[in-house]
Specification:
Blueprint lengths: L22 H43 L11 H40 L13 H51 L6 H29 L7 E3 L1 H11 L1 H6 L3 E5 L7 E3 L1 H17 L6 E8 L5 E7 L6 H5 L17 H11 L3 E6 L5 E7 L5
Parallel strand pairs: 2-4
Antiparallel strand pairs: 1-3, 4-5, 5-7, 6-7
Helix pairs in contact: 1-2, 2-3, 3-4, 4-9, 5-7, 7-9
Length: 371
């Protein structure tokens, strides 16, 4: 069996049910640090002791040269006694100061080993001089962020598995039914199978877009665009769905909007996500309105208002979280997250405002074109 490396990363061959680093490695590291600090303290004390005696001797020689004390070639016993007392005092003070600094740093190093092993619950006790306490606070804040990121990663994997399982289960059941003769291989069954593949395709594409935008690797094909025309095209594309749902879909966009540099495909995707959500959560005989306006700083804002049931403050706070869906939502929970990422990639901002039972307004702004 290969020998475990000394680095903090768990090797691939290491058993999942065993902690990494192994307890014996952690104990050796702690013992090594204790030896280091003890030796450093001893060396510091010796240096300080000799420094005190050296300064005392130089002070005596200077005093003898100036005639302040009797010159007998060597310091008097009283001088040696005083120098010894001073040396012991400085030694004790130096030891206390070294211990006051070394112990908190040793605590930080112990916690670093545990964090490297995947324990994000541990925190450093804030003690010692102010700079050491500031170091402990900064380290604890970093560990808290790591813990939050690890939780988000686990939640993302669980949510992703759930979203993928639904269409795959439907497809598997349909295919097994076709093979067993339960369903006839007609156009209806094949169409339903094709729709489930479209669901999977959209989910994969959404995840790809989200990953690229959040990592900063999304390539934007910017060009001078009239957001009014872009919004009118998006609204026109949803007019049929709105009529089928008995909803009023309107748009208010002035004809003299200043063109701004955006990726029209990506911004249209933002509008599509917002309109799709608004139509989905608005009951029959309700309305969805789009309002486009120029901002005082040269940018452009777009609002999508609906007359749906609205959202609670908690739902508003989590509206842009990955895979977050309201109790009556049937989507994947990625639409608003992608919209926020795409708007942010353009240097803009997006926010939600709502009152429970009074509809929801989604508003995003895009900055003016750089000259």
């Amino acid at each position: 069996m290969p020998r475990p490396p000394c680095g903090p990363d768990r090797p691939r061959w290491w058993p999942e049910n065993e902690a990494w680093p192994p307890p014996i490695v952690q104990a050796r590291r702690r013992a090594g640090r204790r030896r280091f600090f003890r030796r450093a303290a001893v060396v510091l004390l010796i240096v300080l002791t000799f420094s005190v005696y050296g300064m005392a001797t130089l002070a005596w020689l200077a005093a003898a040269k100036l005639g302040l004390v009797a010159s007998s070639g060597l310091p008097t016993p009283a001088m040696w006694f005083v120098g010894g007392i001073v040396g012991v005092g400085v030694t004790v003070a130096a030891f206390a100061a070294t211990r006051r600094i070394a112990m908190p740093i040793g605590g930080v190093l112990d916690v670093i080993d545990r964090v490297a092993g995947g324990d994000y619950e541990v925190r450093v006790i804030e003690r010692g001089p102010p700079p050491i306490r500031a170091l402990a606070r900064a380290f604890n804040a970093m560990v808290a962020r790591l813990q939050d990121h690890d939780r988000q990663r686990r939640d993302l994997m669980a949510d992703l598995a759930h979203e993928l399982r639904t269409p795959l289960t439907v497809m598997q059941g349909k295919l097994e039914g076709l093979l067993d003769g339960v369903y006839q291989p007609d156009a209806k069954q094949l169409t339903e199978l094709l729709e489930e593949t479209h669901v999977l395709s959209r989910l994969v594409e959404d995840l790809r877009t989200l990953a690229l935008s959040e990592s900063g690797a999304l390539k934007l094909e910017k060009e001078a665009t009239d957001l009014g025309d872009l919004a009118r095209d998006a609204v026109h594309a949803f007019s049929g769905e709105a009529a089928a749902r008995q909803l009023t879909l309107s748009i208010d966009a002035p004809a003299d909007l200043p063109p701004i540099d955006v990726d029209p495909v990506r911004i249209r995707e933002v509008l599509t996500n917002l309109l799709s959500n608004a139509l989905r959560h608005t009951p029959a005989n309700g309305s969805v309105a789009v309002h486009v306006a120029a901002e005082s700083d040269g940018g452009v804002s777009v609002e999508v208002r609906d007359t749906g049931r609205g959202m609670t403050p908690e739902e508003v706070a989590r509206a842009f979280d990955r895979f977050y869906k309201g109790s009556d939502s049937r989507g994947t929970g990625l639409g608003l997250t992608i919209a926020r990422s795409l708007v942010t990639a353009h240097g803009g901002e997006i926010r939600a405002s709502s009152e429970d039972g009074r509809g929801t307004t989604m508003r995003f702004t895009l900055p003016k074109s750089e000259v």
